[in-house]
Amino acid sequence: MSDQTTPQTTAASTNTPPRLKGTEKLLVDMGPLVAMFIGYFFGGRIAPLLDKLFGTEFFAVEGNSLFVAVALFLPAFAIAFAYSAIKERRVAPMLLVTAVVAVLLSVLTLVLRDKGFTYIKPTITYMLFAVLLGGGQLAGRNFMKTLFDGALVMPDHAWKTLTWRFVGFFVFCALLNEVLWRSLTADCVEGIACDGEQTWFNIKIFGFTALYFVFLLSQGPFLAKHMQQSDDKHAKDDSPKGETSLATENQNKIGETNMPEGKKTDRQL
Q: Measured between alpha carbons, how far is residue 171 from residues 158, 232, 244 in Å?
C-alpha cells in the first residue's frame, strides 16, 4: 500500500506551485499599506524629494499628504505584486483584480490630482470581489475554493455557504467605505489639511484590516465544523472496507472448502 501511494504523493507535491508563507506573505500583503502609511504621516519630509524627482511643486503643498501616500504606494505595490507572481509562478484572480484596480485608480489620482479616485478605490475593489465570487457561484464555479488552493478541505455545500458569506461581507465593506469617505471628507478644502480625511485614511488602513480579521475569526467555528466533517468522510472512505470484504469472502470460501460435499452442493444450489 505505501509503495503505491508514495510516488503519487511525491508527484502531487512536485506539481503544487510554491506559496508565500510567513514573513514573505506578511511583507507582500502589508508592505504597500506600510508604504502608504509612511507617505501620509511622514509626507512632510518625503514630499520635497518627490517634487525634486518629478520637477513639481505639488507634493509639498499643505493637504496633499494623500498624494504622497499614493506616490509611495504604487512602487511598493508593483514590487510586491511582481515578487508574488515570480515566487508563486502564477497570479491569483483576486490578486489580479486588486492589482488592476489599485494601479489604475492610483495613477488617475496622481495624473488628474483628484483624491476621489483613492477614496472610492476600496469601494470598487470590494464590489469587484463580491461580483467575482457571487457571479462565479451562480455560474457553477467556486472561486473561493480555488483561491484557497487546497489549504482548506470542505464539502461543496460548505464552500457555497462560505462564498456567499464573503460576498455579503465585501458588499458591506463597499457600502461602509462609501458612507465613511463621503461624510468624513465633505468639509475638506483643497490645499488645507483635513482631519476628516485623516480619519478616513486611518479607517482604511487599520479599520478595514481589523474588520477583515474579525470576520475571518467569526468563520472559525463554521470552518472547523465542516473541515471535521470532511476529515471524517475521508477517514470513512479510506477505511479498509475493501480489505474487510475480501477477508469475509475468503472466510466463506474456506468454509465452503471444508464443508461436506452434500451440504456444499446444497449451498451452491
A: 20, 34, 52
